[in-house]
Design goal:
This protein is an alpha/beta fold. It has one domain: Alpha/Beta hydrolase fold, catalytic domain (Rossmann fold, 3-Layer(aba) Sandwich). Helices cover about 45% and strands about 15% of the residues. The protein contains 16 helices and nine strands. The radius of gyration is 20 Å and the shape is globular. The relative contact order is 0.15. Keywords: Aromatic hydrocarbons catabolism, Hydrolase. Belongs to the peptidase S33 family. One of its GO terms (molecular function) is epoxide hydrolase activity.
């Protein structure tokens, strides 16, 4: 199996059609006088749509994405897109450690790009070249330029595909893994399934054990789990429709770029550590780069597959390799007891709660996460 270089090039006809749709957008009226209370603020959306139509430079964004080494390869029975950045280690010393980074929803590989140079060339950022990584950033199946999986979307299935990518396509005998959200689940499965070839794993989302049957939750753990369930009930409308009627909402979002943008930006605001102002974490060009990727690849519907197929996920065994957690500062995850992480990671080496950086940690706090990755993997490299 071999990887082929991939050049991102969206046809002019797709971009022309996108602009025509944007300028004809019909906007809704706010349901509540308080901005953002009932979802995306219509006035904010109006301004962002206007900029998407007549200010945003996709060709410039596309050229920037193509400065990264993009590839595609057949993995797990379908085409997978990934970025592969070689590390710059010491002239006379161990080779950089391979590291696969896995994003979540409603994200893309773009989330991980800010951290790549910090990881591949630490010396250029005041670090030790011995801490360098070879970084691999795959697009999840059905996201952007990765084809949907040939069967059902499960975290275990993606973990098996990523292992095939790292060991068979790229030829790495050992590697580490990091991820959050969906990617965090995939990362935990990687550590559980392949302990002989995985150096360690670090996740940034709440770590919840698969089974409490033999060892019931403690009062402290149950309090956290109850609070998490309460938050999910308040925030979970998006996931309920994607879990039960994904094709219905996808029909609307695949036809309306403004609707697609609203669906995505709602979560970028809610889940980022932005204090209600999405601009403090995401500039407009980055938001619209992500939205254009979803639009041009018509992948918003296929990105819902992991929600529809979620009941097919089976309980994950404990992660046998060394584990680490850098806990994101999302409301649902604050105050997670260390004992929950220890249930998942019997060999928990590092737990950090920085109280900054949300759902999209690699983009929001790249320096912080890069430091945590270096610290965690440093003693494991030998």
């Amino acid at each position: 199996m071999t990887a082929e270089r991939f050049h991102i090039s969206i046809p002019d006809a797709v971009l022309d059609d996108l602009r025509e749709r944007l300028v004809r957008t019909r906007f809704t009226t706010a349901s509540d006088a308080s901005s953002w209370t009932a979802g995306v603020d219509p006035d904010y959306l109006r301004g962002l749509v206007a900029y998407w139509a007549d200010g945003f430079d996709w060709r410039g964004a596309e050229a920037h994405l193509n400065t990264y080494p993009n590839f595609r390869a057949e993995v797990g029975g379908s085409q997978v897109h990934f970025v592969h950045m070689r590390g710059k280690g010491p002239a006379a010393g161990p080779a950089p450690l391979p590291l696969v980074l896995s994003h979540g929803w409603p994200s893309t590989f773009v989330e991980m790009l800010r951290i790549t140079e910090l990881l591949t060339d630490p010396a250029a950022h005041g670090g030790d070249p011995a801490d360098a990584f070879d970084v691999v950033i795959p697009s999840l199946p059905g996201f952007a330029f990765s084809a949907p999986p040939p069967g059902r979307f499960t975290r275990r299935g993606v973990a098996e595909a990523w292992h095939e990518l790292m060991t068979e396509v790229l030829g790495y005998p050992r590697y580490g893994a990091q991820g959050g959200d969906i990617g965090g689940g995939v990362t935990q499965w990687i550590g559980a399934l392949f302990p002989d070839q995985v150096t360690g794993v670090l996740v940034t989302s709440a770590v919840i054990p698969a089974d409490f049957a033999e060892n019931p939750a403690t009062p402290e753990e149950q309090k956290f789990l109850d609070a998490m369930d309460a938050y999910d009930r308040e925030d979970g409308g998006y996931s309920e429709i994607m879990r039960t009627r994904p094709d219905t909402v996808a029909a609307a979002l695949t036809d309306s770029p403004a609707g697609l943008l609203a669906w995505i930006v709602d979560k970028y605001r809610d889940w980022s550590d932005c204090g209600g102002d999405v601009a403090t974490r995401w500039d407009r060009d980055t938001l619209l780069t992500v939205a254009t990727l979803y639009w041009a690849t018509e992948s918003i519907g296929t990105s819902f597959r992991q929600y529809y197929d979620y009941p097919l996920n089976r309980p994950r065994p404990p992660v046998a390799v060394p584990g680490a957690v850098t806990l994101s500062n999302e409301p649902a995850y604050r105050g997670m007891p260390r004992s929950l992480a220890e249930r998942v990671f019997p060999d928990l080496r590092q737990l950090r709660t920085p109280e900054r950086g949300g759902h999209f940690m690699a983009h929001e706090e790249p320096e912080q996460l890069a430091r945590d990755l270096r610290d965690f993997f440093r003693p494991l490299r030998g």
